[in-house]
Amino acid sequence: MTGARGGRPADRWTRNAWRTLHIGVAITAVCLLWSVSVPGFVFVVMLGVVFLFAVAGLGWAILVGFFVVERRRWSWRFLVAPVIVVLTAALVVAGAPFQARWAVSRGAFDRVVAALPAASAQDAEWSKVRVPHRIGAYIITSAYTVPGGVVLYESNGYMLDDAGFAYLPQGPTEDLANEDFEAPSFTHLGGPWYSWTASW
User: Fold this and answer.
1) Whole-model pTM?
2) Neighbouring C-alpha atoms within 13 Å toward the C-beta of 179
Protein backbone atom coordinates (compact mmCIF):
# COMPACT_ATOMS: atom_id res chain seq x y z
CA MET A 1 0.00 0.00 0.00
CA THR A 2 1.35 3.44 -0.90
CA GLY A 3 0.79 6.70 0.91
CA ALA A 4 -1.54 9.22 -0.69
CA ARG A 5 0.98 12.02 -0.41
CA GLY A 6 4.35 10.67 -1.37
CA GLY A 7 3.74 7.51 -3.39
CA ARG A 8 6.16 4.60 -3.05
CA PRO A 9 9.33 5.20 -1.01
CA ALA A 10 11.43 4.42 -4.08
CA ASP A 11 9.58 7.09 -6.05
CA ARG A 12 10.12 9.66 -3.32
CA TRP A 13 13.81 8.76 -3.17
CA THR A 14 14.33 9.18 -6.90
CA ARG A 15 12.43 12.49 -6.97
CA ASN A 16 14.57 13.81 -4.14
CA ALA A 17 17.73 12.50 -5.78
CA TRP A 18 16.92 14.24 -9.06
CA ARG A 19 15.99 17.47 -7.24
CA THR A 20 19.27 17.41 -5.30
CA LEU A 21 21.24 16.74 -8.47
CA HIS A 22 19.58 19.58 -10.38
CA ILE A 23 20.06 22.07 -7.54
CA GLY A 24 23.70 21.01 -7.18
CA VAL A 25 24.36 21.39 -10.91
CA ALA A 26 22.66 24.81 -10.97
CA ILE A 27 24.71 26.08 -8.01
CA THR A 28 27.91 24.75 -9.55
CA ALA A 29 27.04 26.46 -12.84
CA VAL A 30 26.53 29.78 -11.05
CA CYS A 31 29.91 29.36 -9.34
CA LEU A 32 31.54 28.71 -12.71
CA LEU A 33 29.92 31.78 -14.26
CA TRP A 34 31.09 33.90 -11.32
CA SER A 35 34.64 32.52 -11.52
CA VAL A 36 35.03 33.65 -15.14
CA SER A 37 33.42 37.07 -14.64
CA VAL A 38 36.75 38.53 -13.49
CA PRO A 39 39.95 39.24 -15.45
CA GLY A 40 41.25 35.73 -16.05
CA PHE A 41 39.38 33.38 -13.70
CA VAL A 42 39.25 32.45 -10.02
CA PHE A 43 41.55 29.43 -9.92
CA VAL A 44 40.44 27.91 -6.60
CA VAL A 45 36.75 28.17 -7.49
CA MET A 46 37.47 26.66 -10.91
CA LEU A 47 39.07 23.60 -9.29
CA GLY A 48 36.01 23.15 -7.09
CA VAL A 49 33.70 23.52 -10.08
CA VAL A 50 35.54 20.83 -12.05
CA PHE A 51 35.29 18.44 -9.08
CA LEU A 52 31.60 19.15 -8.47
CA PHE A 53 30.70 18.73 -12.15
CA ALA A 54 32.54 15.39 -12.15
CA VAL A 55 30.57 14.25 -9.08
CA ALA A 56 27.31 15.48 -10.62
CA GLY A 57 28.10 13.67 -13.87
CA LEU A 58 28.60 10.43 -11.98
CA GLY A 59 25.34 10.96 -10.05
CA TRP A 60 23.49 11.71 -13.29
CA ALA A 61 24.82 8.53 -14.92
CA ILE A 62 23.75 6.42 -11.92
CA LEU A 63 20.24 7.88 -11.92
CA VAL A 64 19.82 7.47 -15.67
CA GLY A 65 21.08 3.92 -15.39
CA PHE A 66 18.55 3.22 -12.64
CA PHE A 67 15.66 4.46 -14.77
CA VAL A 68 16.78 2.76 -17.97
CA VAL A 69 17.86 -0.59 -16.50
CA GLU A 70 15.48 -0.97 -13.56
CA ARG A 71 12.36 0.79 -14.81
CA ARG A 72 12.89 0.58 -18.56
CA ARG A 73 11.51 4.04 -19.17
CA TRP A 74 12.58 7.51 -20.19
CA SER A 75 12.20 10.63 -18.01
CA TRP A 76 12.36 14.33 -18.82
CA ARG A 77 14.61 14.63 -15.74
CA PHE A 78 17.44 13.17 -17.85
CA LEU A 79 17.66 16.45 -19.77
CA VAL A 80 17.74 19.08 -17.03
CA ALA A 81 21.37 18.73 -15.89
CA PRO A 82 22.80 18.40 -19.44
CA VAL A 83 20.84 21.49 -20.56
CA ILE A 84 22.21 23.50 -17.61
CA VAL A 85 25.75 22.36 -18.44
CA VAL A 86 25.42 23.15 -22.16
CA LEU A 87 23.94 26.61 -21.52
CA THR A 88 26.64 27.37 -18.97
CA ALA A 89 29.37 26.26 -21.36
CA ALA A 90 27.90 28.44 -24.13
CA LEU A 91 27.88 31.49 -21.82
CA VAL A 92 31.48 30.84 -20.77
CA VAL A 93 32.70 30.40 -24.36
CA ALA A 94 30.91 33.59 -25.40
CA GLY A 95 32.51 35.49 -22.50
CA ALA A 96 29.06 36.62 -21.35
CA PRO A 97 29.69 36.52 -17.57
CA PHE A 98 32.67 38.87 -17.79
CA GLN A 99 31.01 41.13 -20.35
CA ALA A 100 27.88 41.47 -18.23
CA ARG A 101 29.75 42.16 -15.00
CA TRP A 102 32.03 44.67 -16.69
CA ALA A 103 29.08 46.39 -18.39
CA VAL A 104 27.39 47.12 -15.06
CA SER A 105 30.71 48.24 -13.53
CA ARG A 106 32.25 50.43 -16.21
CA GLY A 107 30.42 53.61 -15.23
CA ALA A 108 31.79 53.31 -11.67
CA PHE A 109 35.32 52.75 -13.02
CA ASP A 110 34.99 55.82 -15.26
CA ARG A 111 33.95 57.96 -12.29
CA VAL A 112 36.82 56.73 -10.10
CA VAL A 113 39.46 57.31 -12.78
CA ALA A 114 38.10 60.77 -13.58
CA ALA A 115 38.68 61.78 -9.95
CA LEU A 116 42.33 60.64 -9.87
CA PRO A 117 45.30 62.94 -10.52
CA ALA A 118 46.54 62.68 -14.08
CA ALA A 119 49.92 61.02 -14.67
CA SER A 120 52.28 62.35 -17.28
CA ALA A 121 53.03 60.03 -20.18
CA GLN A 122 56.72 60.92 -19.71
CA ASP A 123 56.69 59.93 -16.03
CA ALA A 124 58.17 56.41 -15.79
CA GLU A 125 57.26 55.94 -12.14
CA TRP A 126 54.25 54.10 -10.80
CA SER A 127 52.49 56.11 -8.12
CA LYS A 128 50.05 54.42 -5.74
CA VAL A 129 46.66 56.13 -5.42
CA ARG A 130 43.67 55.53 -3.19
CA VAL A 131 40.51 54.19 -4.78
CA PRO A 132 37.35 52.66 -3.28
CA HIS A 133 37.71 49.04 -2.18
CA ARG A 134 34.69 48.14 -4.32
CA ILE A 135 34.23 49.63 -7.76
CA GLY A 136 31.06 48.49 -9.48
CA ALA A 137 30.84 44.72 -9.05
CA TYR A 138 34.58 44.25 -8.48
CA ILE A 139 36.83 44.36 -5.43
CA ILE A 140 40.00 46.37 -6.04
CA THR A 141 43.05 45.78 -3.86
CA SER A 142 45.29 48.58 -5.14
CA ALA A 143 45.66 51.15 -7.92
CA TYR A 144 48.52 53.08 -9.50
CA THR A 145 48.87 55.98 -11.86
CA VAL A 146 51.27 54.80 -14.55
CA PRO A 147 52.75 56.28 -17.72
CA GLY A 148 49.68 57.15 -19.79
CA GLY A 149 46.94 55.97 -17.46
CA VAL A 150 45.90 53.96 -14.41
CA VAL A 151 46.36 50.30 -13.44
CA LEU A 152 43.95 48.69 -10.96
CA TYR A 153 44.46 45.31 -9.30
CA GLU A 154 41.38 43.09 -8.93
CA SER A 155 41.25 40.88 -5.84
CA ASN A 156 40.87 37.46 -7.45
CA GLY A 157 43.81 37.43 -9.78
CA TYR A 158 44.56 34.80 -12.41
CA MET A 159 45.85 31.48 -11.05
CA LEU A 160 49.08 32.50 -9.26
CA ASP A 161 49.45 35.75 -11.17
CA ASP A 162 47.94 39.20 -10.78
CA ALA A 163 45.01 40.52 -12.80
CA GLY A 164 42.94 43.63 -13.06
CA PHE A 165 41.91 46.56 -15.21
CA ALA A 166 43.82 49.35 -16.89
CA TYR A 167 42.71 52.76 -18.08
CA LEU A 168 45.06 53.53 -20.99
CA PRO A 169 43.72 56.13 -23.44
CA GLN A 170 46.79 55.70 -25.68
CA GLY A 171 46.82 51.93 -25.31
CA PRO A 172 49.33 49.71 -23.46
CA THR A 173 53.04 50.25 -24.00
CA GLU A 174 56.18 48.31 -23.14
CA ASP A 175 57.03 50.98 -20.54
CA LEU A 176 54.39 49.51 -18.23
CA ALA A 177 56.33 46.31 -17.53
CA ASN A 178 58.59 46.24 -14.47
CA GLU A 179 59.89 43.73 -11.92
CA ASP A 180 56.47 43.51 -10.24
CA PHE A 181 54.43 43.66 -13.44
CA GLU A 182 56.15 41.14 -15.69
CA ALA A 183 54.97 40.10 -19.14
CA PRO A 184 51.59 41.87 -18.91
CA SER A 185 48.91 40.64 -21.31
CA PHE A 186 46.13 43.11 -22.17
CA THR A 187 42.65 42.52 -23.58
CA HIS A 188 40.79 45.51 -24.98
CA LEU A 189 37.40 46.07 -23.35
CA GLY A 190 36.36 49.09 -25.38
CA GLY A 191 37.39 52.73 -25.34
CA PRO A 192 40.40 53.34 -23.07
CA TRP A 193 39.76 50.26 -20.93
CA TYR A 194 41.66 46.97 -20.85
CA SER A 195 41.74 43.91 -18.64
CA TRP A 196 45.15 42.47 -17.89
CA THR A 197 47.04 39.57 -16.35
CA ALA A 198 50.70 39.72 -15.34
CA SER A 199 53.32 37.76 -13.44
CA TRP A 200 54.85 38.98 -10.21
Assistant:
1) 0.80
2) 0
